[in-house]
Amino acid sequence: ATDFGIKEALQKLGVSDINHGTSTGSNNFGNGDLIESYSPVDGQLIAKVSTTTREDYDKVMDAATSAFKTFRAMPAPQRGEIVRQFGNKLRELKEPLGKLVSYEMGKSLQEGYGEVQEMIDICDFAVGLSRQLNGQVIPSERPGHVMREQWHSLGVVGIISAFNFPVAVWAWNTALAWVCGDTCVWKGSEKAPVCAVACQNIIAGVLKENNLPEGISCIVNGDYKVGEYITTDTRIPLVSATGSTRMGRIVGKTVAERFGKSLLELGGNNAIIITPTADLKVVVPGAVFGAVGTCGQRCTSTRRLIIHESVYDKVRDAIVGAYKQLTIGNPLDESNHIGPLIDKDAVNTYLAAIEKAKAEGGNVLVEGGVLEGEGYESGCYVKPAIIEAENHFEIVQHETFAPILYLMKYSGDVENAIDMQNGVAQGLSSAIMTNEMKEAEKFLSFAGSDCGIANVNIGTSGAEIGGAFGGEKETGGGRESGSDAWKIYMRRQTNTINYSDELPLAQGIKFDL
Ligand code: UN1
């Protein structure tokens, strides 16, 4: 098979055959079993990464805790300078890192580069933010008094991320956490451990060049048990977790039990409403990229199209037509639109979902199935499917991390479509395609979409980093990335200062001695 420059990419990223999946200070190690990472692209072994034992973990926490003391004392703009340097390293290494993401996770090379671009963008955002961690000055009701609000560094932030964005989600969290003065312990996905090693190598280099402790950025590696070390650890005031609703329910509960904060980024069940005035030139690429991009493994992937009955046939035919042009194959080959699913378990889940949809009465418009033969040896390549379904089907109510798109009809007003769009347990991303101003504004109003993300005339996936990213209901309620999402990485302190010679009490209370 053609190498597509993978060996060279791994070399540039400092990845060897066997890698340390644990980091502390200047000393990287990991005494647990080795995880072998196989590429879903060609089934080949990429590298081995050691897992983190409990003893390893405690050493990491010592390093992260002591680094916090140094880091929080550094002026925020100087911390921003570290993030600026990290962003520049990412610019230099965009090609090899993007390739590794594509090879280990299976997303198209374009999307692999896009993911690294998101990292660069959030670094730029964080650098600016490092001079804007502003509190407020609040008028006091008492003479000779002033009130102030300050934002202080929080501590060690635990980050648990998923396989589908194996590098960007970490960066959304760390870039902000670092300018806020926090140190980070990251458990990446055990399905993409090499990506985490590559990221750690990059930041470790930057920290070393600046004579800063590596404890500012730590990785740990392993399954849910290593995640449990983080969620139960009272030394970690904030846990940011991205993944399934099932995982988030456990993480949220465990962290809340010890009064920690959690930032949860969980499942989506994202829909596009297609109204009678929708422009097909926008609808078709928006819906198709949303449904099949990253092989349907984004939390923002389009799962449902809610189409007005008057344009249903036209839209259905256009989408089905577009699916005929999709090419499935090695994602490093830029002529392919779609790469593989992450692993064979994902393939089985995909197949089971199609069967379930059929059993519930779904009508298959574009057949799914697993691809076989040359180029598909890994067994992870599947055909994107389209199924006409009803919103109440059990399978439609669930998020299946695969390229399965459900089509459904609405009649009458846009309110009916909004009811269907909101009629699921998840609340991440949503979109409406319309040229009617009133419909668009209704969709964006309090009575419209109940999701954290609501778009007009673009699809559900591919959010920019400048906005706060996250969703409601079973999506977990967290917001990360842009806007004022940084505030969760800091602790707020309210100060009242008396510069008078008297001590008047608030609320006019008299207390004469
Ligand atoms: C995810 O799938 O976990 O909006 C994140 C998007 C990307 C991020 C997705 N910027 O699709």
From TrEMBL:
The keyword Protein transport does not apply. Residues 34-494 form the Aldehyde dehydrogenase domain. The lineage of its organism: Bacteria, Pseudomonadati, Bacteroidota, Flavobacteriia, Flavobacteriales. The keyword Iron does not apply. This is aldehyde dehydrogenase (NAD(+)). Its EC number is 1.2.1.3. The active site is at E265. It is an enzyme of class 1 (oxidoreductase). InterPro entries: Ald_DH/histidinol_DH (IPR016161), Ald_DH_C (IPR016163), Ald_DH_CS_GLU (IPR029510), Ald_DH_N (IPR016162), Aldehyde_DH_dom (IPR015590), ALDH7A1-like (IPR044638). PANTHER family: ALPHA-AMINOADIPIC SEMIALDEHYDE DEHYDROGENASE (PTHR43521). GO terms for molecular function: aldehyde dehydrogenase (NAD+) activity. It comes from the Bacteria. It holds the Pfam family Aldedh. Homotetramer. Keywords: NAD, Oxidoreductase. Belongs to the aldehyde dehydrogenase family.
